[in-house]
Model the fold of this input.
Amino acid sequence: MITILIILSIGLAVLSIAQLMHVFEASSRLKGDSSPLPTDAENKYQSKMMLVFLFGYFAFFAWLVAKYGDKLLPVSASEHGVALDNLLNFNFAIITLVFVITHVYLFYFAFKYVFNKDRKAYYYTHSNKLELLWTTVPAVFLAIIVIWGLGEWIDITMDETPDDAVVIELYPKQFDWTARYAGSDSTLGASNYNMISGTNPLGVITSASLSEKIAELNEEIAEFEAELADAPEGGLKEEELKEKIAKWNRQLENVMSFESLTTLEKGKDDILVKSEFVIPRGKDIAFKFRSRDVIHSAYMPHFRAQMNCVPGMVTEFTFKPTITTAEMQEITGNDAFEYVLLCNKICGAAHYNMQMNIKVVEEEEFNVWMNEQKIFAEGFVDDGGTSTATVNNEVELTMIEQ
Amino acid sequence: MATAHTDHHHEETFISKYVFSQDHKMISKQFLITGMLMAVIGMIMSSLFRLQLGWQGESFWILNFFLGDKWAPDGILDPNMYLALVTIHGTIMVFFLLTGGLSGTFANLLIPLQIGARDMASGFMNMLSYWFFLASSVIMVVSLFVETGPASGGWTVYPPLSALPQAMPGSGLGMTLWLVSMSLFIVSSLLGGLNYVVTVINLRTKGMTMTRLPLSIWALFVTAILGVLSFPVLFSAALLLIFDRSFGTAFYLSDIHIAGEVLERTGGSPILYEHLFWFLGHPEVYIVLLPALGITSEVIATNSRKPIFGYRAMIGSILAIAFLSFIVWGHHMFLTGMNPFLGAVFTFTTLLIAIPSAVKAFNFITTLWKGSIRFTPAMLFSISMVSTFISGGVTGIILADSALDINLHDTYFVVAHFHIVMGLSAVMAMYAGVYHWFPKMYGRMMNRKLGYAHFWTTFICAYGVFFPQHFLGLAGVPRRYYSNSEFPIFDDLVSINEMVSIFAIAGAIAQFIFMFNFFYSIRRGPKASANPWGSNTLEWTTPVEHIHGNWPGPLPTVHRWAYDYSKPGKEQDFVPQIVPLEDGEQDGGAGH
Done:
């Protein structure tokens, strides 16, 4: 009822404005103001407004910088990030200059050369000299930006990763992250999505996880077969179960084929963690990314690091942290500060809350921490990660089933 | 043949005149009004999600009013619906308003009128183009009402998220309808685009050489070529996605374990989709932008009473931008794990585009210099377009740099960048075009005072919305986040989000000034004269009342370029293109 009234009153308001307009226009026509072109007074007024806008725009810009300038990302906590910040600042200097100069000209000309019936505009069709000038000057600046920028890009993406780098795999799914350290052998064990289970969220392949998965699949197949025996013949349920059994058998076949792998023991000493991972200061951290379901993106803004996680392929990014969490807490003056890993590629309902803490510590402390962690062979307990996200996902899944 | 055409004065029925019209002027109005209605939907959506972003987790009855108990229980927006809103907002604004609405309106209106043709090369194809557009719009709107919600994977609909209904509710029926709608949209674009290209090449009137074409036509012509070359690639991307969704193929899928089960389809790659999508997606940016630049050229020259500066350089930069736009798509994919060398190449080509773009901006500014500027609402919108083109363009230099993109990719910095350079520029130019050519479309004038009010509220709110978003991006806030409150590092930025939302909603309300002015003026605006702005181009030599075939007598003959404003030695401050050159007079466009 209220909505109808609201709609009705909006409609009436529009109608009455239309009537007012009509009266207004009729009266201005009577006054003889029927030219489609702006009056002198209007031109003057608008030209002054151009100048007002120019100052207003710059003032807004300056105000934003003053108010939020110190709320942006703090100093970069990685080696390459510092170089990137320098490059970014250089870029900002140039584009701010260009922005200010062009806007001053644009709005000043608009203000100055307002229509005047006694002054004819200057018939100026082109000038090769001027056009050459503003083709070459941007080209020179862009050349500097390209050369510097690509230098950094090559440094970041093409440098050899040193042998003593800490190897970490980040494996996202809807809607949490799991990190896996290579362990004492510095090699990540083989993994496959067919191997994923409640106790093996990354599908790591070791002889133990293999037999466990084979047993699990066999058990499930047996359950389906028992159900099938009870299911009414020729029904939908029967068909569904038959399909399931066939699918589970194909997966079993895939899983069994891993038995011939020669790298089965490499995964035993891998370390899996959720909700927080720890990295040492001053060592290269070589990240490898996969994804379980959809595209995610591992974004670590404080380290100026980001890479997409794409199902079906492995992507990489390496950086060297330079500031520990404790130091950064001092720099930012915030005792609760933590480095974070965010998801930065739309991935579903809880995309906004797919996080993991990153702790940067001194190397000795890191080694102590590593020794305290359980290795994969000792079993992995899922601590839930970002728990609210998991709940949301379940809600979503039940919705689809309906 | 052309003169025989004019003798057709058969009575037209309501259906053939307004509904199944083959007249380019009517089709242009159809595109405009359909585009406007779609834009209103897209705009309301943005206001709704801005409510959530500005005041996160708070309850608003208006959310409940629009979205109901399912998607906004107790007036609090559901995260899935948030994603659906940003997805459909993006799709509608990019495709339905700024591609279909902008090109459809102005290519249809201006191409025949400004080149001196009776109509498009194929009126029937032109009509089909509109009807495919309408059908695709209707399907897109219908997809908002399906039970699992509309497509929600972002306007780029990357698989596997968009390919698997298990991944999110929006990837169910809503996504299917999205793909169907986009396929029809592509057909519409191709039918329209082919027509525009053929018309410009074949149907120019006597004397209308390519170097006498107004820049608006150059821009629309090149835009059509871009569309014809790139939309088929999106079509194939969509087709493969339809196969993956419905027929069990694995073009984009591999190694996936979702909803507790293994997905048995392997061997594809989502990166393939990204390549196909952005091969359209990047030219698409210029499909949106070039017509805007063309309209701005016309409006600025006419209202500065001065020739557009560097006419040939303007054509050159349109062509250069168009060519380069095909070899830069990879800059959307720097972080997909592609070969770093490839990334370097795309950085280089992308930064090259800055040069022709800079030339255009400088030439616009020089056109104002020593002009005699009349501040019609169209002129104000055009000046603001130059401002947004520069403000948004310069941040593109940062994002084009693959190294800097690492930290800014998919943050609000990107949102600010493309909304200003592409969204605002094109919307401002579209408004300029509507205010400028309204007398030609409807034979009446729009109200100038309301135009001024509309301009200033829109321009100020537009920057109020998007300028602060740069700061969000530099603080590391990712786009498409339903809420930032889960991360304490973003706590200091709450007030920016509030400010942005206030400007966004105020700006949205201001658009109703325009809507009112537009529909009021169609019926009751003062009658327009034949050439109200004192313009040189051919469309202003046609009678105010539309007739089929555009010119009552023979087609006009063109004798000069379109920009003889304030030419020395002339009585008036404009010389229409149909006025013959005097003895010894140089044609401005050809002179070097």
In short: Confidence is low (pLDDT under 50) at residues 1-7 of chain B. Residues 25-541 of chain B form a domain with the Cytochrome C Oxidase; Chain A fold (CATH 1.20.210.10). Chain B touches chain A through 136 residues (CB under 8 Å). The longest strand of chain B covers residues 256-258.
